[in-house]
Amino acid sequence: MTNRNVNKTILELAMSISNSGALPRAAVPGIMALLCGVLGLPQKKLFLKTLEDGSGKGGTKVNTWIDSMRASSPTRVKSTQNQDPSPWTLYHPSALNLFDQIVCESKGKQIVTFLDYDGTLSPIVADPDKAYMSQKMRATLKDIARHFPTAIVSGRCIDKVYSFVRLAELYYAGSHGMDIKGPTNRRSTKKVRKSFHNQINETKIFIMVSFPLIIDSYFFVFFQGNEAVLFQPASEFLPMINEVYNILVDKTKSVPGAKVENNKFCLSVHFRCVDEKSWAPLAEQVSLVLDHYPKLKLTQGRKVLEIRPTIKWDKGKALEFLLESLGYANSDNVFPIYIGDDRTDEDAFKVLRKRGQGIGILVSKIPKETDASYTLQDPTEVGQFLRHLVEWKRTSTQYHKL
Ligand SMILES: O=P(O)(O)OC[C@H]1O[C@H](O[C@H]2O[C@H](CO)[C@@H](O)[C@H](O)[C@H]2O)[C@H](O)[C@@H](O)[C@@H]1O
């Protein structure tokens, strides 16, 4: 039996256990992990591969997308209160419960915070245009950015995510990291310019025009008014993305609840408000359009299909890029904290694991296959964690001043 078939069989087995009504659909990843454990198989690789198999083009992939969309964002979530901790929470403990351990690990290092937006800073809502962040969260972010370099890393286009966050002192990596901008307030902009010029002098070639295919050798730094536009590796895809956007808007207009969102260098097709019976034909429709665009690929998020260029660039690469631009390319003195809730955030968690630096925190109430070390349940807990960080920083700074 090939690896692919083993994956498929385990996924099917997990799905049929869930379909029997014994367990909710959200438990599929957990069941898969359990089956892999019993069979002595490397569960992480198997599960991820199964999902990847569904991100290609043609055949049975549509069902796989739909199943994984359901699993990643279930409609009903069972209360986890007053239950024994599952093995999952033992392996991915609460970042609030282990706060002291986390800050102890960061001792003597510069904390840099990376925050996903939807589902992390704002709760998931039905209308993507109304995913507002609370005033309390905005105040928390302001405080966090006062103490640590902070970046918002989102699948949204920068303009949209900025319209929700409205803080000029942050870094923004929009379109899944394919559009990176530095802070626009004066003090931080100077810092960005300085840090970039240092790097450019040391190792990199500074050019004004982007050439996306040579992304490893070039920085694309230019200034639009007061804005430091740091990197746009997919700019050549803009016309294609706009073309596909128009086609998809047209093709999906007859599906009630379907929504296509233009995220500048990528697109989102939203399923959240579509009747589940129409999910398969909608996904099929998207797949058919994409068949004509081999330079674009599809990935799944929380009740959303995302269309993006096939370039090797993701939230993990954006994290590395930002660390480098802050002067921490080969430094042991940095402690990145990345918080995210989505499949696309896994690329960043992986990078941190590989670097053996900092921590990844997954925002989830349900067990999920993840490379993050810790968990937080929801944006409310994310806010609490960030406020603890600010408080800890304030107290430790005061202590050192004494
Ligand atoms: O990387 P992120 O900041 O997490 O962005 C990922 C996608 O988030 C948004 O969609 C998700 O949130 C919506 C609002 O809560 C929700 O309606 C939708 O079902 C979720 O998938 C955003 O609209 C997408 O464009 C982003 O790609």
UniProtKB/TrEMBL annotation:
<keyword id="KW-1133">Transmembrane helix</keyword>
<protein>
    <recommendedName>
        <fullName>Trehalose 6-phosphate phosphatase</fullName>
        <ecNumber>3.1.3.12</ecNumber>
    </recommendedName>
</protein>
<keyword id="KW-0812">Transmembrane</keyword>
<keyword id="KW-0472">Membrane</keyword>
<dbReference type="Pfam" id="PF02358">
    <property type="entry name" value="Trehalose_PPase"/>
</dbReference>
<keyword id="KW-0346">Stress response</keyword>
<dbReference type="GO" id="GO:0005992">
    <property type="term" value="P:trehalose biosynthetic process"/>
</dbReference>
<comment type="pathway">
    <text>Glycan biosynthesis; trehalose biosynthesis.</text>
</comment>
<dbReference type="GO" id="GO:0004805">
    <property type="term" value="F:trehalose-phosphatase activity"/>
</dbReference>
<dbReference type="InterPro" id="IPR003337">
    <property type="entry name" value="Trehalose_PPase"/>
</dbReference>
<comment type="function">
    <text>Removes the phosphate from trehalose 6-phosphate to produce free trehalose. Trehalose accumulation in plant may improve abiotic stress tolerance.</text>
</comment>
<dbReference type="InterPro" id="IPR044651">
    <property type="entry name" value="OTSB-like"/>
</dbReference>
<keyword id="KW-0378">Hydrolase</keyword>
<comment type="similarity">
    <text>Belongs to the trehalose phosphatase family.</text>
</comment>
<dbReference type="InterPro" id="IPR036412">
    <property type="entry name" value="HAD-like_sf"/>
</dbReference>
<feature type="transmembrane region" description="Helical">
    <location>
        <begin position="22"/>
        <end position="41"/>
    </location>
</feature>
<dbReference type="InterPro" id="IPR023214">
    <property type="entry name" value="HAD_sf"/>
</dbReference>
